[in-house]
Amino acid sequence: MTPRTGAAETTVDVAIVGAGPAGLYGAYYAGFRGLSVAVIDALDEPGGQVSAMYPEKLLYDVAGHPGIKGRHLIDNLLEQAAPFETTHLLGRTAVSLTRREAGWTLGADDGTRVHAGAVVIAAGLGRFVPRKLPCSIPYEGRGVAYHVPRLADHAGRDVVVVGGGDSAVDWALALAPIARSVTLVHRRDTFRAHDYSVRQLAASPVRVLTDAQVVACHGTQRLERVEVRAGDRSLELPAEALVAALGFSSGLGPVADWGLELEHRRIRVDQSMRTNLPQVYAVGDGCTYPGRVPLISVGFGEAGTAVNHAAVALRPGQRLAPEHSSDTAPGGVPAAAPAAAEATRTAPLAAAGPLAAAESAAEPAAAAAAEPAAEPVAVPA
């Protein structure tokens, strides 16, 4: 599933900062509620930390899946949101948040501007920047990468993996049955990876070089070989691919300067996922409230909660608890969606007075209008 990219200036109902699992589920749920959506993320592909660090690892905390690979989860989330034509703005960092009469404007580092009635920050622990191996930088995109989105891309190749953490060991093990050869280079003689994984590594065909470092890379158009220094020895290894699994540095970055109330580098929210800024919500591992548990499944619930409250504020008169998701027509569009809500997709920012006042006035009315048997929205404890 290839997300469509957006223009330099976009106007939507909801802008989501972060294309990780919580952000992608928020995009689906906003589309389900009849809202137009743009998702912006600094990485070049959707999936956030899952795509960057765990694409081939089985995840066990996703409801309905005894175990699912990270990349399959992201593919499923993209497919789930596809009927609603989410605009994806990838490879762009959101650097500014400016108040406007009918909502907010997000500014990106490349000049992109997104005008939105509500903003959902799903940026996790912030922008992930890979730690780089200096000698490999000239070959980035030409054999050198910092994660492995698709194992099959390395079928029949000589691969060198650098690092000693879980990601490095996991990728070396996953690539061993596929690649022509796999060599793991680690600068220490002990690993940070889980003991069970290290035992698997010792029993695998992966060549392991410890107390060693990659000191040079060579090739013409693409990477062809690397030099490794191990103690007083120097080795030259064939390498059509080098995976520098040295970890990522992260931080809130520009988000920390947007006037949000922070607690231990996370955004403080209430039980409705609201921040201290009107019509700005935060979900996922980048937010905090008493008792929060850092699970992907928790992030999904938070995204649904935030979108439901945003929908009521943007469309006064809508119910906080929407129709059941099973009441859908082919293609995933709600079959019972009110005609008025469908019409608003062509006018995402209809003037309705100050949005903060609209939200406070709309919610009591929505609660009063809700049927006694309406399914409640799950709000994290």
If you had to describe this structure to a student in words, what would you say it looks like?
This protein has 381 residues and is of the alpha/beta class. The protein has 8 helices and 22 strands. It has helices spanning 21-32, 48-53, 70-81, 166-175, 195-202, 296-314, 339-343, 355-369, and strands spanning 9-17, 37-41, 58-59, 68-69, 87-90, 94-100, 103-108, 113-121, 127-130, 144-145, 158-162, 181-185, 207-209, 212-218, 225-230, 233-238, 241-244, 248-251, 262-263, 266-268, 280-282, 287-288. β6 and β7 (103-108) form a beta hairpin. α1 (21-32) runs parallel beside α3 (70-81), α1 (21-32) runs parallel beside α6 (296-314) and α6 (296-314) packs across α8. The longest helix is centred in the C-terminal third of the chain and has 19 residues, at 296-314. It is elongated, with a radius of gyration of 23 Å. Residues 335-381 have low confidence and may be disordered.
